[in-house]
Design brief:
alpha/beta; eight-stranded parallel β-sheet; TIM Barrel
Length: 323
């Protein structure tokens, strides 16, 4: 039986803001989170890949989550990415994060192990899920992480009630239809590929774990609202403006690219933690050109009838984690 939690809408994967020296800057991260909440998002994902999860140590992760739970103050659900290299480390993190007060998790595969068989993948995900009462979004990204959770494997994971959503990032939109065919409405389906979001919306997703749009939160939310309202002509027009920026999300240096965009619009800084380094030379100039052209050509946004779409459940006051 599935959990009663049903996530939907825009759940941005926020960056972990840092100082020039590479120290975590929780105040700057909270500032950006507040701007995203004001735009009308339905949830926030901290410590995802864009949040440089694996570059932070365990103490830093727990301290950041504690600060962000307090800063968000129950306005939207707070999810933590879980990208630990072993099952034991992932179990310890979700238990600690549940005590801190997060509302759920986005669970990635063990990042250093790229050749599992299906039995090992199922063991990892089910072991972590057993360690918490919080709802979990399963993250499938075989291109980047070497694990492919097929629709048939997802159906087996669906036997565990606190798996409530899937972030589908295979880059193959056929998967969305196959997931609906095999799993029905068991999971909320989210796309995690920015420059496939319109195509995914047509196929019937429930939500979007947005990347590049964290630098353009108003336009990002307006685009999503247009798809919910079935205003496809307007959505396509906005998408054409947005697409060069959305392409920044699917490059190996997506963290540097998106942090640079966040800096240019005044919502944060570009500083990253080594082994990542800030962009330089022709690459930096090329990315800045895309960002600045997007800023210069920002469309005039019209009003949405009836105001913003209703936010998803599982936010302030619900605390679905507690057993």
């Amino acid at each position: 039986m599935a959990s009663t939690t049903r996530w939907s809408g825009v759940f941005p994967a926020i960056t972990t803001q840092m100082t020039r020296s590479g120290a975590v800057d929780p105040d700057a991260t909270a500032f950006h989170a507040d701007a995203l909440i004001v735009s009308g998002i339905s949830g926030l994902v901290f410590l995802g890949s864009l949040g440089e999860n694996q570059s932070l140590d365990g103490t830093e992760k727990r301290e950041l989550l504690l600060r962000m739970v307090k800063a968000v103050g129950g306005r939207v659900p707070v999810l933590s990415g879980v990208a630990e290299s072993s099952v034991g480390e992932a179990v310890r993190l979700v238990r600690d994060a549940e005590r801190i007060g997060v509302d759920g998790f986005m669970l990635m595969p063990p990042m250093v192990y790229r050749s599992p068989d299906p039995r090992e993948s199922l063991h990892h995900f089910n072991s972590v899920a057993r360690a918490t009462g919080c709802p979990i979004m399963i993250y499938n990204n075989p291109i980047s992480y070497g694990h492919d959770l097929t629709p048939e494997l997802m159906a087996r994971l669906g036997e565990r009630p606190n798996f409530v959503a899937i972030k589908e990032s295979s880059g193959n939109t056929r998967r969305l239809t196959d997931l609906r065919r095999v799993c029905g409405d068991r999971f909320s389906l989210f796309t995690g590929v920015d420059d496939l979001v319109l195509e995914s919306a047509v196929l019937g997703i429930d939500g979007w774990v947005a990347g590049s749009g964290i630098a353009f939160p108003t336009e990002n939310q307006q685009f999503w609202d247009l798809t919910r309202a079935g205003r496809w002509d307007e959505a396509r027009e906005l998408y054409r403006w947005f697409t060069p920026l959305l392409h920044l999300d699917v490059h190996p240096k997506f963290v540097q690219y998106i942090k640079l965009a966040v800096q240019e619009v005044g919502l944060g800084t570009e500083w990253v933690r080594a082994p990542r380094l800030p962009l330089t030379g022709p690459e930096r100039r090329s990315v800045l050109r895309i960002i600045h052209e997007g800023m210069a050509n920002r469309p005039k946004l019209g009003a949405m009838p009836g105001g913003r779409a209703k936010r998803s459940s599982g936010g302030s006051g619900s605390r679905p984690c507690r057993r």
